[in-house]
Amino acid sequence: MNTPKEKYEILKTYYGYDSFRDGQEELIDCLLSNRDVCGIMPTGAGKSVCYQVPALILPGITLVISPLISLMKDQVRALNQMGVHAAYLNSSLTYHQYLKALALAKECRYKIIYVAPERLLTEDFLDFAVHAPISMLAVDEAHCVSQWGQDFRPSYLKIPDFVQQLPTRPVIGAFTATATREVKEDIIRMLNLSDPHMTVTGFDRKNLYFEVRHDKDKYGGILQYLNAHPDSSGIIYCATRKNVEEVCDRLISDGFAATRYHAGLSDAERRSNQEAFTYDETPIMVATNAFGMGIDKSNVRFVLHYNMPKNMESYYQEAGRAGRDGAAADCILFYSGQDVITNQFFIEQNRDNEELTGEALELVRQRDRERLKKMTFYCHTPDCLRDYMLRYFGEYGAGYCGNCSNCLHTFETVDITQIANDMIGCVLTSGMRYGVNVILDALRGSKSEKVLRFQLNENHYYGSQANETIVFLRQVLNYLVLTEYLVVTDDQYPIVKVKEKGLSFFSEAGDFRPVLTMKAARKTTQTPSKGDKASAYGTFSGETSASSGSKKHASAPRTGSAPFESLRKLRTEIARAQHIPPYLVFSDKTLESMCVLLPQTKEEMLTVHGVGELKYQKYGEQFLKLCQELAGDPEI
Ligand code: ADP
Ligand code: ZN
């Protein structure tokens, strides 16, 4: 049986990683103890490790069901690079190749086999499967089973049939990045998961920097960015094919190595452009949203949006293709009012689903309009962008992330001493009996029915903060709760009360009183358009990060530094010689840590993030030699 040590050994030897990320270990442990799992993790969180590690420990074969040919190829190539025998069975193989792979599979030559869902019930495949020792079934992109999801694939519905035909039921793991309730329920039901262990990991990707820009000249803004990041690879998303063509042509004529991708190109051109991008030959990809499903290029350093997407789901998915290696990456959206109009047009014209008519169609449109509105608010909010996004996906952010354009540029430190004084005073003198809204209304001098009924209009602090907005006062109140000056009780009718810290603050007057400050969105930055309720989404901006005031964010890793460039050059040479994409040799993150540590021995090299024993055998010595040279270089 497996020992806890074994999974760490595998992680280290094959992947070169020292620790599991959030959620990975519990999913692996469950699968190893024969319990079904459903893992919901955002793109880039590391879903594949969750089924590949148990696959290497379990006695038999693991089948991975995946809908995307390019993704299968990529994963299989990466596994073979790491020294794991893996194969894929899909329509990209000729029949002859397919039979050959199947024959090898029957001899148990592969530990992991990726298979397209439509193959499962074919005669050849079934004949193999019922006679093979299949330990586990991993269902990737499991949301494809749900009609609620955006990529429903009817062939996924055949998975339970397939499982039924097997002599023994393998343990099943389902993985997806889509987290809505309907999709989750569908996955469990449609795949017949038995009492699955659910793991949902946070959607926050701390290494991504978010920014919204309102440049009049979008192309100029993009150019400026690219000039400032000359060696980085990234994607520029555009709303239409026409935009893709225009932007790509201009970039090429301005001397950038760019390529393009959209549904109007031939299959062959799409494929070759994608390869050129993957292999860093043309490190800039200009594309419509047709590009992306299944790209696993880990060193994407930026995702720029030339147009605003139609909803936050699309935006987060596309932006999330940046920084999958965990190193810093930029996600910048170039907004213009025209984008709203274009998207509205798409929504009104949408006839994608012919089965929808009348009321149902109108309902779908209504939802789309609502989602577009929230996407537009994102482009206008003065609050933390990350916070806004996390709230949209039903999580709570800290209010201030320190790694988005709003936190870095539009937040300022404001003195809230007087407001805090009046707020605490109002709560105390009214007997600590009222809820948040009543207190805020009183401070604002409102004549609401409750304020009058409770005679708060006679309170000393009534109207003392009439010049502040209710939104800002609410932020201050939240901040005072977070910092334990106030507390809001947990009852059916929550009441604001003053805590010890608030009492002593209130009782110290004049020069002895400490100045209270908090981080808040600057009030004058952007005037949200009429009806824009953006600020209602992010409620408070507490001082939760010490890194305030800094105007620079950590952008791409030590790219540009001499050692990094030497390491990268070596990586490119090796990749060229072996005809594999550079990131399969080592990721940017690995080069980055190599550059910091400059290992001088094999042991030291093996401590570098992403260098496992097998990778070391392949490339370790070359990189070690270079690191030794770099360490001896007086210039560095
Ligand atoms: P997903 O399928 O969830 O989008 P992947 O499985 O492709 O994500 O993993 C994204 C990246 O994270 C890969 O480069 C992978 O090697 C890396 N990764 C996964 N698990 C770990 C870990 N425990 N430590 C460091 N890197 C990891
Ligand atoms: Zn932020």
What would you note in describing this structure?
The chain has 636 residues and is of the alpha/beta class. The relative contact order is 0.09. 44% of the residues lie in helices and 12% in strands. Helix 17 crosses helix 18. It has a seven-stranded parallel sheet, sandwiched between helices. It folds into four domains: 4-200, P-loop containing nucleotide triphosphate hydrolases (Rossmann fold, 3-Layer(aba) Sandwich), CATH 3.40.50.300; 208-408, Rossmann fold; 413-521, Winged helix-like DNA-binding domain superfamily/Winged helix DNA-binding domain (Arc Repressor Mutant, subunit A, Orthogonal Bundle), CATH 1.10.10.10; 562-631, HRDC domain (DNA polymerase, domain 1, Orthogonal Bundle), CATH 1.10.150. It binds adenosine-5'-diphosphate and zinc ion. Residues 384-386, 401, 404, 406-407 line the site of zinc ion.
